[in-house]
Amino acid sequence: MRLKKYSWTCLGLCLLFLLPFTSCRKEQFLTQAGADLRFELDTLSFDTVFTDMGSASRRFKVYNPHSQTLKISRIELAGGGSSDFSLNIDGQNTLEAKDIELAGGDSLYILASARIDPNNGDAIRLDSILFETNGSQQKVYLEAYGWNAIYVGRRGYQTRFVNEQIQLTPDTPYIFLGQLYFDSSSVLTVPAGTEVFMFGGPTSRPGDRATIVIGHNSSIKVNVGGDLNQPAEFKTHRLEEDYQELPFQHGGIYLTAESVNNQIHGCIIRNAVDGIVIDSLAPNHPTVKLELKKSMIYNVDRSCILARFSSLWAENCILANSNQYNFINILGGDYTFRHCNLINFGTNPFVGRNEAVLSMRDFEIRYDADGNEFPVTADLRARFQNSIVYGNQAEEIELGSLEDFSGGAQWDYAFEHCLLKVDTFATGQFNCLINQEPYFRDLELYAYQIDSSASPLINAGMPLNPSLADDAESKGRDAQPDIGAYEF
């Protein structure tokens, strides 16, 4: 036993004696000329960046393609502190990093972002990232296009009250921030070709999402008389390609009960939570709350249009792709759709859709002071003429009524010369096409024009009074019009 213990002690002493020699051995770096780095790309482009706002970070990889370790003497942003770009090197925000060891076959992430000085105007900004290894230099170029914009509103949980006439112009893009509340007889006028970028994002808090609120005796006038050939647009402020089709990024347009004479023509609204919310009819303003013509609302989270005991006159419009409803009304109201497409195939393949394209209800559930629920009802009138209600579910029309409630409301609805996607639907439809293939041009590109002479929509509409002389793109209609927003 003693001999064994002694042997282990000797072994330990030997290891301690050898340790200084092994720890002093230096890392063997590859130092020969021409042993360069390899890059994932030669130019990192940011496309368009709003001035004074900054871009999301983009990244690329730096590779050591050799078997031995390379020491990168220096990684540096060429423009230094005056550059429109910034770097994150191996997890550190810095303008320069030195003596970075990159093992053979390993890689390193470089992140870059752009923030453009608005005083320099619209222009391409250029810079580069320098890499120095074994005395040789390599570069990755940076480029971004700065785009001046006019900022309106305040970020965060703040509301800007507007008590004046606001006239936008198509010459410069606008970025709306926070909640913009138009009040006291103010009017927001948006002409053809104007781009309004709504600040927010799919992960933003509700108060951070830009929302347009039309309040007391105020109105919104968008591209009145215009069409979808030169639309005004309300969309996300995120310019990256991945964000263009995402819903849930801004709060859309909210028409309060006290708003009046709202007109939205030739307009595209996308990326919203709700595209347009139309609140109750005010007693002193019995006219149509919203006139919607030749417009498209799509890729939204809850509803393209949510109406609550209100009124809508819609012509040549496309309501498409919502995670829930295309059009939903609560507590009755008065709604007319003429030559409209209500189409839903979902905005996200990873999110299931259980709701119908169209939902109409004559009631609302409310709660008393003790928390007991009770229904409130209101009359409902709805007309769908030469329109399409279609989607990827068997039943795309949902009707909700409290017929046995003692204060029951009056229902008056009709579908005339429409294409309907329904499972069981018998009443209120006249000369309609049921569950037939419409032959749209391209669902993935949201192109809902008729694409085949075999489409049953052609010449299946009825003449309207007052008539509609043209379609959503101002193409003329003939005496026997086609069903939907587009004439073949």
TrEMBL record:
Gene3D superfamilies, alphabetized: Single-stranded right-handed beta-helix, Pectin lyase-like
Keywords attached to this entry: Signal
Family matches, as InterPro entries: Pectin_lyas_fold, Pectin_lyase_fold/virulence
Keyword Signal attached: yes
SUPFAM superfamilies: Pectin lyase-like
Region annotation Disordered: where it falls in the sequence: 469-488
Signal peptide stretch: 1-25
Keyword Signal: yes
UniProt name for this protein: Right handed beta helix domain-containing protein
Lineage of source species: Bacteria, Pseudomonadati, Bacteroidota, Saprospiria, Saprospirales
